[in-house]
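Bench notes, afternoon.
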Amino acid sequence: MKDGKHTMHEGHEGMSQEGDMVRKNERGMHEMHAKHSTHDHHRHMMEDFKRRFYVSAILTVPILLLSPLIQSVLRISIAFQGDKFVLFALSSFVYFYGGYPFFRGFLDEMRKRLPGMMTLIAVAITAAYVYSSAVVFGLEGKFFFWELATLIDIMLLGHYIEMKSVLGASRALEELVKIMPSTAHLMKGDEITEVPVEQLKKGDTVLVKPGEKIPVDGTVREGESYIDESMLTGESKPVLKKEGDEVIGGSINMEGSLVVEVKRTGKETYLSQIIELVRQAQESKSRTQDLANRAAFYLTIIALGVGTITLAAWLTFGKELAFAVERAVTVMVISCPHALGLAVPLVVAVSTSLAAKNGLLIRDRQAFERTKDLQAVVFDKTGTLTEGKFGVTDVIAYGSDEDDILKIAASIEVHSEHPIARSIVEEAEKRNLKLEKVDDFKAVPGKGVEAIINGEMFRIASPGFLRESGIDEGDEARKLAEQGKTVVFLMKDSELMGVIALADRVKPESKEAVANLKKMGIRCMMLTGDNKLVAKWVAEELGLDEVFAEVLPHEKAEIIEKVQMDYITAMVGDGINDAPALAKADVGIAIGAGTDVAIETADIILVRSDPRDVVEIVELSRKTYRKMIQNLIWATGYNSLAIPLAAGVAYSLGILLTPAMGAALMSLSTVIVAINARLLK
């Protein structure tokens, strides 16, 4: 017990130190994050749109009240000396302050030669502002200031909603750095000192206590312990490491103390290489123009083209300049519908909110849109399709029932700290089995454990012990072993009583998820660092189309790249080892119970750790896309009627679309778009 207490004390001490390490890492990372983070850049942009919207919206109220058209609609009269100059001053401020993001976006689009939404907005508000300003200073015509102000307000609001929905750009690199402890116990002779990990050099020796993370890649020089590498390699079982074995920085030492010789530091370490892979994959992910931008591109061409033709045509027909310019400006303003600024963001806001309520968190809107086109979903195994926890999968009893086998086995194994022992005891507890009292418990290295229960000798033996003793393990046990499961045998003296098989258990929901995805015409694959036998067993259980096993993290990203050559691909995973693949895939989906790294690398997060939610997110993406298309049709459809009428094609019939009528049509379009977005629910 004394040793046990000492070990526990060391474990708690290690956990406390680990907490300090994480806090130090967080402080360092936050300083770097403040300077370079995409996340902060998005937040800054979102706050900028919000601030400009509030200021512009407040100033829009007096602009509306001072506009002659609004006064006539509301049947009010507000007039004083210099009122049009006050209107001009307020509108100028809204134009330059509220319109600034659109001018900046316009210049970006021009540099890329991809005119889109920003170009359309910039053209519309500039046409309205320049023309209205000319009217203030003597040109005959009508003011467009209220259209200018409301258009800027709506577009700022739309971009704010959009930015809010995409906020949360990946912080994967920050989370990866947090995984590594910041200090290590450096050994020099009998002296142990705590030093920063950066000071470690090749050849140094470090002490790793139970419960601590291994600080760097190295080789075990003293000690023996089980190491949890599941988040790094995908290996579901804790791995026994003894003298001469390699250990990976960031993996967790579970039981005994280890003395490790440093082999790799800095950028050479396994985890550093994964960090670099994630960075490269994120940078290489292409950005596609969204639907509204594509619609805006065509509307920009139409606005400029029809506006120019309208001006030229009316001047050719002998109309005065003021009339011709007013028609051209009306065309350009009406070509940029208010509803277009809200068509996509409103749908995204509703679908994002709807998804969140159902445990589906959308971090990247463009990736979410791509989800509708998925042709293949590649799942990680450990923790995604399986529980990520080593446990009892099968119990075979010879001459008694399963519960008797488990009860005796658990009664013996309760005295052992081995992962197999813990799993057997947990299964017995789950079944509410009452354990027996045991005497003379003894562990036999490499062969198993034994004890006396009620005066009889029982042994939990390994397959190796049975082979040495010349005992046939039986076909059923061999079949379980062929599936990659760990098999142990319960014996009474030399008589075989039963078999217990252990493995990482398949989640009950996984089968339904795979079946539903296949019904949707999506191929289902599995990519795992676990061994081929286990992978084959899981694949057969679930009916997967293809399996990639014994794959290292850098190979995962390469395999995703190969799958992408044939299919639009999603990667679903939860571990650090999945991070490069999640970043490389067309859509990265993280299981929420996984690591922060996987979550921060992913485009979509499934909070419930339920693979069936992959089906939900695909269905939601398809429905969201349909709503976007419907809204864009409503937002731009009225242009087919409004633009010709604004240009004056029906002038000879006495029909001329005034700015007021254009505004009414615009408002109707906006209302329809808003209602349609809400119908997504």
